[in-house]
Amino acid sequence: MYSITGSVGMRRRWTRLGIASLSCVLLLLALAGILDHSAAWDEEQNLFFYEPWLDPALVYSPTEVSSVHFDLVGALALAAGFSEADAAAIQLYSQLTDSGILTGSSIYRTADAPVSWPSPPDPAETPPSPFCPDPAATAATLSMGMTDTVECPGCFSSRWGPYNIFFHFPRDRVNELQALERWAFGDPADPLIGVATFGFSSTARFDWQGLVNIYEITPCFITTTHAVDTGGIAAGSLEALGIYLHSLGDHWSHGDCIAATEAAGLPFAAHVQAGANDPLAPCRWLMHEGEFGHPQLFPSSHRTFTGTLALYDALVAYSLQSERPLYWPIPIDGEGQYLYNALYQFVHSTAASNPTPRRQQAEALRGWALQTRVADPAYQRWRLWLPLLAQADPGMG
């Protein structure tokens, strides 16, 4: 599962700068600054990737990861009863949903083989809608939903591809987050039905979203529904679960932005450039900086804490329906509420700007989960009653 070869570099294609080169360079530097200061639901500065199935783990710089999507998901998977190998797979694919490529002793990608992408519709052949009111006059110049900046040919969940909104800003709707949940918990033959989002004739590409308000400068948005080419990742697999957990986390992380765009009657949520008093202020890229810390000083941290509880609920639900886990999940309110309190401390005792304490707390949680489930026989899901015959113990099911 973990041996992946080859190398795919991320390529960004910019036009020749000409007279406006200086302003373009300044904009790019500003965008880089925004991305570098993303908080724990995104890649974090100086929080580097490691291969969780290796002991001791080797840290690989400069590949950065998220303390929630990566570190915490792995620890919670162990508390939910998964083996160390299975927890590592879930953890890896939770992070790959964002990163696309992770470089360690091997190169890991969302999918090894190139995937097929949905073709963008022709605005001229699309009926008018509130979000594309004059398609006949809209040039078919694609500014959102491109594939030329995705991290690898198999990176179907890329933040820069046609399914960016579907995987990273999903609303709790039957064709968005709930579709991902059905796929993660489904049968291997079940397809993932996803929504692709395309923008046309904008004055800026979607990958500049941190510097512009794409809703104001894009005259036409069109969404289409497809069976997503997941590159061989099957419904119900650990990889699918990891991807769903990432989207579930993003749903909570972007919850205020989703609510703001729905209140404004916009077709989807996305990061934008907006002032502090703008109705879309919750969609600013820097909003992630308020997701951790003391709950009275950082109200958004309440949403982050609720999101971590939702991640564990999903892991427990999968664990209970699957025969793979070795142990019964540790109840969130069991063991003196250790797990609940650990998540509370993970969110409310750390700062968004410093991910190191969160990694340390996630490591402590991993160790506690491994020790707790081994020490108490009630957590052992499979017991050996006869030679070469194992059967499930119903004690905590």
Written description of the protein model:
The protein has 397 residues and is of the alpha+beta class. The chain has one domain (21-378). Helices cover 35% and strands 11% of the residues. It has helices at residues 21-36, 67-79, 84-99, 164-168, 177-184, 214-217, 238-253, 255-263, 300-321, 338-348, 356-375, and strands at residues 48-50, 59-64, 101-103, 107-109, 142-144, 193-200, 220-227, 382-386, 389-392. Mean pLDDT is 88; it is low at 1-38, 384-391 and 393-397.
Q: Briefly, what is this?
A:
The chain has 397 residues and is an alpha+beta fold.
**End-to-end separation:** 29 Å
Structural class: alpha+beta
Estimate what percentage of residues fall within beta strands. Answer: 5-15%
Major beta-sheet overview? 3 strands, antiparallel
Mean pLDDT reading:
88
Strand order of the biggest β-sheet? 5-6-7
Number of spatially distinct domains: 1
**Stretches with pLDDT under 50, minimum 5 residues:** 1-38, 384-391, 393-397
Oligomer category? single chain
Number of helices: 11
> Would you count the extended β strands for me?
9
What's the alpha carbon Rg, rounded to whole Å?
A: 22 Å
Shape: globular
Helix-strand string: HEEHHEEEHHEHEHHHHHEE
Helix content: 25-40%
